[in-house]
Every structure is written in structure tokens, then in C-alpha cells.
Write a structure and sequence with these properties.
Blueprint lengths: L1 E6 L4 E9 H16 L14 H7 L2 H24 L8 E7 L3 E9 L23 H14 L2 E4 L9 E10 L2 E14 L21 E7 L13 E15 L5 H6 L8 H34 L7 H21 L4 H8 L3 H7 L1 H20 L6 H14 L4 H7 L2 H19 L3 H5 L2
Antiparallel strand pairs: 1-2, 2-4, 3-4, 5-9, 6-7, 6-9, 8-9
Helix pairs in contact: 1-3, 4-6, 6-10, 7-9, 7-10, 10-13, 11-12, 11-13
């Protein structure tokens, strides 16, 4: 067997595999025996028909095509290995020529594009300001106090931040519309849970009072019949409730029940430490995004459409898996967004193209810098995944291709290499 590769435009090409001689003869003989098992001739048991009769019943061309069908995958894999090719699309098979002496088979597919890599050393990796401001601290402390606040009913007027328990019903042109009615609903004023103006008009209402709210639905509202519609909501306030925030003292610090927190001073330190940690993570994430953008902007790659399409499909599949974790299916999500699955996939293509481009660049860096991934690193990654997903280690190995895991680890190492070679001036900048 011999193979050769011809590259065409947009990283598409064809691999021609030629099989001849003894290898082709053995493939045809085996195919003939396979076909013979199904030949029925009156007077002979199935599978025991004489060869000379079988030769009359089974055309040579049928045997040759069967030989190709039986061995095409094996020959394709051998050809890919011989030429060092890795398809990024499903190969399409065609028989160019075939006879008793040989078979010439064509596999058309797309490969990853070749390109000249741009600068990947001395790029910027700069973290933003990591200082925790008093405003940020006060906001987080306020959130914690809100969480542990006592809620009590009051006789006075509702104010922003209060919760109003209401019965309501909406009317369009004097007719109640579907989904516009509820009873005993707790609405926090200022939460922006309802359409604009609804909560504002309830400021000042008291328990037992009723009120008509004249409102207009937003033009981008999800229900077609209500987009931009003028409506009236009839509302009855059953109760007005307000929050009594706890004092920040040692008792409150103990009530929040954080490990190691016994005093207000302990609580203050914990809050500031957590904010600092979160801010650092956000800064690193932003710096990573900026570095990735710098990497991709410095290199031109003509990415085949099939690679972008496959990545967009993978992103959609990942979203579908996440939806299942929250008890929602894809049809529900598509209904909420007003998109078809095809439109959702297409909406992911810009991000998919950026992701594919960065992956190709990191693969190139790993190759240029001779970055190796030891077998023990791959094994450790399998172990980590088994712990993360609470799965048996061997089951993880069955579901994931070790070569793909190795390639992903190589990209991670390539990215760490880039981070280690950022502008030295940025390392000491504050």
C-alpha cells in the first residue's frame, strides 16, 4: 500500500491510497469468501457452493468493491500515519480506479491549516488594580446583613427595599391576558423583577390598599402579543414587610457561622480577604483574556469552516449539558430565546473561530518549543477528572481519548510558556 497527499484550497485535500500486488489479491480473496457465504444455489447447501459456480455468480467488480469496503478504514488509517496527517473533517471516500491488479482509493478531507506564527514572547500580562475599596467592602457587608435581616410587617407606606405581598392581574384593552395574574406574590421593590414602572408605582402603597398601574411592556418583551403594549395592572397589597438589619458586632459575627470567625474583627478580615481573592481571580481572568487576544491578533490563519462549525456545535452541546444540570432541556431554552438550534449554533461561530485560532496557535507553540507531556501527567489528569466528576478511573479512561487529553495538556503548557515569557517590565509593575 502506498499513499500520497495533495493539498488544495482552504486546507482541503485528497489522500490517494493505492493497493496492489499480494496485498490487493488477499483482500479480494477474503472479500470473495465473505460474499460466497450468502450465495444460494439450488442443490447446494449455503456456504458449500463449488468455487467455479461461485465465480459465475459473483462478478469480479462486486468482489473488488467489497474488498475496498472491508479494508478502507484500515488503509485510510495506515495512509494517515504514513503521511503524518490529522483530518479535522470526516473523510469522504471515492474509488478512482479498480481492477484485478489494484485499487486506487481517494479520501477527501480537511486538515488543520498551516500558518506563520506571529509574536508570542514579550507580550503584556498586566493585572489591574487589586485594592479592595471601602465601597466594595461596605457592599459585601451589606449583602451579608441583608441575608441575616429580620423581616417584619409594617403599617406605614412601602418604600424601596421593602417587600410587598400582592395580588395582581393584568389587562390589555380591558381583557385579562395570559400569565398576568398571581396571588400572594412577594415582590421586593427595587429588585427589577417586573417590567419597568411596576415596582416604582407601588412605592407609597399600604397594606389593604388597591391600585391600578398604567404601564407599557418593553418592545423586546419575549411574548409577541405584549411587545410594546399598553396595559393596566390591578394590584392589591396584602402586606408590606421591611427588613431590620442586624448590628455588626461579635454576636452577628458568630451568627454568620463562618469557620474561624468569632468576632466582628474576624468577620471584617474574612470579608476583605475573600474580596481580595475574588478581585485577584477576576484580574487574572481579564489578563488571560487580554493575553489570548494578543496572541490571536498577532497571527493570521485561514481557518477552515468545518473547524469553526465543529467548535460551535461543541459549544452548543456543552450548553445543553449545563441546561440539563439545571433541570432544563434545549427545547425550553430555544423557546425562551426565540432561536432555532441552527441560529444558536451560528451565534456561537465568532467565539468558536477565536477559540479554534487560539488552540491552533498554542499547538504551534508547543511544537516550536518542543513541549512534552509525560505519561504521568496524562495519568494524573485522568485521576483529577475521576475525582472531579466522581467517576471510576477506568470509566473516565474509556470515555476520554488519551491523545486528546495529552494534546490539551500540551496547550496548557504552551500557554504557561507564553506567560513565563511576558515583558519583564510588567512583572514588577504595580
Amino acid at each position: 500500500m502506498a499513499a500520497n497527499w495533495t493539498l488544495k484550497e482552504k486546507s482541503n485535500g485528497e489522500m490517494v491510497v493505492t493497493v496492489e500486488g499480494e496485498e490487493w489479491k488477499k483482500a479480494c480473496d477474503k472479500a470473495f469468501r465473505r460474499l460466497a457465504q450468502n450465495v444460494q444455489v439450488e442443490g447446494f447447501r449455503k456456504g458449500h457452493v463449488p468455487a467455479q459456480i461461485l465465480a459465475q455468480r459473483i462478478p469480479a467488480y462486486q468482489t473488488q468493491v467489497q474488498a475496498v469496503s472491508d479494508n478502507a478504514n484500515e488503509w485510510m488509517i495506515a495512509g494517515l500515519k504514513e503521511l503524518g496527517l490529522e483530518p479535522v473533517s470526516q473523510p469522504v471516500l471515492d474509488i478512482r480506479s479498480i481492477d484485478a491488479d489494484h485499487a486506487e482509493i481517494v479520501f477527501e478531507f480537511t486538515v488543520a491549516p498551516d500558518f506563520e506564527i506571529g509574536q508570542y514572547k514579550d507580550l503584556e500580562y498586566k493585572l489591574g488594580d487589586l485594592t479592595v475599596t471601602e465601597e466594595e467592602y461596605d457592599k459585601e457587608l451589606g449583602r451579608l446583613r441583608e441575608q441575616y435581616a429580620d423581616v417584619v410587617e409594617k403599617d406605614s407606606e412601602a418604600a424601596m427595599g421593602d417587600t410587598v405581598n400582592i395580588d395582581y392581574e393584568g389587562f390589555k384593552d380591558g381583557v385579562a391576558f395570559e400569565g398576568g395574574k398571581a396571588e400572594g406574590y412577594d415582590l421586593e421593590l427595587g429588585s427589577n423583577s417586573f417590567i419597568p414602572g411596576f415596582e416604582d408605582q407601588l412605592v407609597g402603597i399600604k397594606a389593604g390598599e388597591e391600585k391600578d398601574l398604567n404601564l407599557t411592556f418593553p418592545e423586546n418583551y419575549h411574548a409577541e402579543e405584549l411587545k410594546g403594549a399598553d396595559v393596566v395592572f390591578h394590584v392589591k397589597a396584602n402586606a408590606v414587610k421591611t427588613k431590620i438589619l442586624p448590628e455588626v458586632n461579635d454576636d452577628f459575627a458568630k451568627d454568620v457561622n463562618f469557620p474561624g470567625v468569632e468576632t466582628a474583627e474576624d468577620l471584617t478580615k474574612l470579608i476583605r480577604d475573600r474580596l481580595a481573592e475574588g478581585k485577584k481571580m477576576d484580574a487574572e481572568r481579564a489578563a488571560d483574556e487580554a493575553l489570548g487576544k494578543a496572541l490571536t491578533e498577532g497571527t493570521e490563519i485561514d481557518i477552515p469552516e468545518v473547524m469553526i462549525q465543529n467548535e460551535a456545535e461543541n459549544m452548543t452541546a456543552q450548553l445543553e449539558a449545563q441546561l440539563r444540570q439545571y433541570g432544563m432541556n434545549m427545547n425550553q431554552y430555544l423557546s425562551m430565546t426565540g432561536m432555532s438550534r441552527e441560529e444558536l449554533v451560528n451565534s456561537n461561530k465568532e467565539q468558536a473561530a477565536a477559540s479554534v485560532k487560539l488552540r491552533l496557535i498554542l499547538d504551534k507553540i508547543a511544537k516550536i518549543e518542543n513541549i512534552e507531556v509525560p505519561a504521568e501527567d496524562v495519568e494524573n489528569e485522568f485521576v483529577n477528572m475521576s475525582k472531579m466528576y466522581n467517576m471510576d478511573l477506568e470509566d473516565v479512561k474509556k470515555q476520554l481519548d488519551a491523545d486528546l487529553v495529552k494534546a490539551d495538556l500540551a496547550r496548557q503548557k504552551a500557554y504557561e510558556f507564553v506567560k513565563e515569557h511576558v515583558k519583564k517590565a510588567e512583572e514588577t509593575a504595580e
